[in-house]
């Protein structure tokens, strides 16, 4: 994905060689945005489009039509409605409900009976320009090198601030690569590095052009040989694809003993035998290469070196992606059905959704406002994301905030770097900074009314 240096209007050919799996079950570290009383993570708006629309459109841009979307029971009704009745793509989407506590490898293990060929795994929160992020080069790099796996990496966009009360501790990811061969040779999260990195001599002897970088992030998008799924099925101790399966394969490239002790060689040999048998039975094959894999285990990477890409895997990243993605749709910045008072100011870096009303002397900068919102007079909104059906009364100020569906910000409230949960009411003249307002309980008594936020 996301060689964003190419634009095409041509309809892609249907690709039969891959199945795709979008992981949309786990809500991740994005509370209170993804919550039962608001929206599933996969439906959170990015530039007023559901998050999952981006990976779906990315896959369809490659011609991939066979897509499995793994969801959990708590989001089943809302996601199924969107995928069946709202999403306008042409792909065949198979919706499968999985245990909400399943990790990525466990989801693949559960889906194994439905996967019959090489496959692509991607998260629902991968966001790029659906109009110009034509991902053929990513898949072509896999086709031409024919590795066991190709992982997509990208350079994260620069944060512009804001993003609610949660501030990420951004640990670097140490990535060792051989750019001449597109090989992924080493991965180590920064939070696991104590004093120094340990690089084994066999690795350094075999790959003399190894470069160690910290500016890249793993997109969690992988195109894989079918036999990798066999490995996941057999080795039940592998729970996370990114933390367990991928590092194991990367290490095994330079450690022949791992190939044997972990059973990788046997699984690869069995895959070769199946391929030879299939070729003897059929005159044609849907695989690109004559052999399903090279004799040597290879793990490759593809770097999205230009354009826009990111993951909405935290509240700050979600806010940043809204601002970046809003610039991808210059013709849709202010919906035609929105009512904008002539004495208000909507910045060229902002979006306003359908049927939203903005009253006079209101200023909106670097923000995304959803549909059916009512914004009063003398309101200032900066660096914020407002979802749908939100009311902001006169004189309120929002700076660096995320406001969930159906919330109400009453007159002259001032919030900075706050998250307001769905259907919450923020009292008039409230002043809050770095607060997560996620629920309210309002008992009434003889001495008046008390509001507790928890």
From TrEMBL:
Keywords: Cytoplasm, Initiation factor, Protein biosynthesis, Transferase. Residues 20-153 form the Nucleotidyl transferase domain. Its main location: cytoplasm. It comes from the Eukaryota. GO terms for cellular component: cytosol; eukaryotic translation initiation factor 2B complex. One of its GO terms (molecular function) is transferase activity. Pfam families: LbH_EIF2B, NTP_transferase. It is found in: Cytoplasm, Cytosol. GO terms for biological process: cytoplasmic translational initiation. Residues 336-430 form the EIF2B subunit epsilon/gamma LbH domain. Component of the translation initiation factor 2B (eIF2B) complex which is a heterodecamer of two sets of five different subunits: alpha, beta, gamma, delta and epsilon. Subunits alpha, beta and delta comprise a regulatory subcomplex and subunits epsilon and gamma comprise a catalytic subcomplex. Within the complex, the hexameric regulatory complex resides at the center, with the two heterodimeric catalytic subcomplexes bound on opposite sides. Acts as a component of the translation initiation factor 2B (eIF2B) complex, which catalyzes the exchange of GDP for GTP on the eukaryotic initiation factor 2 (eIF2) complex gamma subunit. Its guanine nucleotide exchange factor activity is repressed when bound to eIF2 complex phosphorylated on the alpha subunit, thereby limiting the amount of methionyl-initiator methionine tRNA available to the ribosome and consequently global translation is repressed. Belongs to the eIF-2B gamma/epsilon subunits family. This is Translation initiation factor eIF2B subunit gamma.
